[in-house]
Amino acid sequence: MVRHQTMQMSERPYITCRQLIDFIADYVSGDLDDLSRHELERHLGRCRSCQAYLDSYRTTTELLGELDEPATDVPEELVSDIMARTRDMKFLQAATLRG
Amino acid sequence: MDISTQTRSEGSEARLLERLRGGDSRAFETLVRTHTPILLRVARRFMRSEEDARDAVQDAFVSMFKALGGFESNARLSTWLHRILINACLMKLRTRRRHPEEDIEEYLPRFRDDGHQLESSVPWAESAETILELRELSNLVQRSIDQLPDTYRVVLLLRDIEELTTEEAAQILGVTPNAVKIRLHRGRQALRTLLDPHIRSVE
Fold first, then answer.
1. I want to staple B125 with a disulfide (CB 3.0 to 4.6 A). Which of A72, B152, B184, B201 is the partner?
2. Buried b vs exposed e over B78-93: b needs ≥16 C-beta within 10 Å?
3. Closest chain A residue to the Cα of B37, Cα to Cα
4. Does the distance separating the beta carbons of B37 and A98 come in below 8 Å?
5. Is the pTM here over 0.90, yes or no?
6. Which residues on B lie below 8 Å from A57 (Cβ)?
7. What ipTM was assigned to the predicted interfaces of this complex?
8. Is B25–A92 a contact, with Cβ atoms under 8 angstroms apart?
9. Rounded to the nearest 10 degrees, what angle do helices B177-199 and B166-173 cross at?
10. Between the CA of residue A91 and those of A80, A88, B35, B91, what are the distances in Å?
11. What pLDDT was estimated at residue B155?
């Protein structure tokens, strides 16, 4: 975490952890403007906690993107149910769709 | 997919569509058999029970038939079916929604009055790839997603798993793009919090 008391008076104040975390999604997706990105990176350079937060946030989004369940066979009863329901609708004989 | 494969695929899809519109029941069965495995996988992510997932797939095919006449051939059938299925899942979720929905605040990071993190974050010990390779952790990710309140879980699924854009997700949910962005960020933060105790490195 950034320690304000160690900053020189001449230094521009750092953004807070709350401000950084509020804008992490835009930072990760590359949607931040140059100035905001620079301010985030300035904070990250001094704050190990936010660096750890950012890395784990990134890993979380990667997990979602790569999550993959095993392929399944087509359940026969589901196919039959779908065919039965659409037969009931008489869709397949619907002449209205032919034009 | 190269151009010639894509052209062939588009050609066969156009023929399939023509047969469907002509009322060919075998064409319909082919369509159901081809697309059901993928649609069922998507539905299982959204719905919390196998029965609801299967019902959503059925509803999607029924909705598709009703709308087949208005389908524009310049869209892919699979993309169209995917959207119809998501709508069917969301419709079902609305009727199943638990009241009141759990509060997400407890899963969000907490800050001191001066805006700094109340508790320091610790780096994670594993990469996304390793986490998904380990069955126990992979199951944990799935369980943690299921634990999220639907308002946030659905946006995570739409944006990060089904890869819809912010605008597409906003349209399908009937909310503003900004609401989608806020929910996505909160959903990711909450999921991160749920996973953190299991994956954080030991100091």
1. B201
2. eeebbbbbbebbbebb
3. A74
4. no
5. no
6. 188-189, 192
7. 0.84
8. yes
9. 110
10. 16, 8, 19, 23
11. 97
